[in-house]
Amino acid sequence: MRQIAALVVLAAAAGAARADEVVLRNGARFEGQVRESGDSVVVTMDFGSITFRKMDVARIERGASSLAEFDAKYAELKGDDIEGRYRLGLWARSKELAQRARKVFEEILVRNPDHEGARAALGFRKYDGRWMTEDEIRIAQGYIVFRGEWIRRDIADSIQQDEARRFVESARFDEVERLRIRAEEAEAAAARARAEASRACGDPDYPDIVSYRRILYPRFYFRPWPKPACPVKPVRCEDKPRAITRKCEHP
To answer: What is the CATH number of the domain that holds 41?
Structure first.
């Protein structure tokens, strides 16, 4: 008999804690204070309200709403009842009514800024004689948020200085490499120009067929085509051997 009575009490408690629930046709569920208005269904939750069309609602399951209970308890509070507000804030937080709970704790601090329970509930802690949040305490201890993590300011400054120095060194290396490549390209272009000039002037040091004929058969070397203009000063015919004096026009 006692076991049956205990089960009845637990079921009643579970039903009291349960809010209204809207079940949509797609299977989604929303809990809160449900109010029907014309062709719409409004669900009021801790963080706000949401509206659905009645045609999208499969059914509404009624239950005791924590929001309604909170509103009833809040209306019974007296203006100077700080401890009553504190207890209500703790109750709201246990029912996952975070916004309502925060509102009550903030009201307590307006009336009593040094209320330890409300300060702790809002994430404050005393540091160096002042109420501060955890982030404010870290900042006071010399920490900053650096790339998503809390790190000491001096360490962050050292990291940034090292990165700046490496950036300057990398930029200098890239500039030197560009100058080296540019110098090599200029030298290669000059070498190609010299080679073209040597070929155009019939330079015997240039490895073409005409040069080989000149080296192997100097007495029987005749130019079968006109020699291109040469930028080098031509040698006079008197400086050439007599055997080819009549054919001498260019060096």
So the answer is: 2.30.30.100
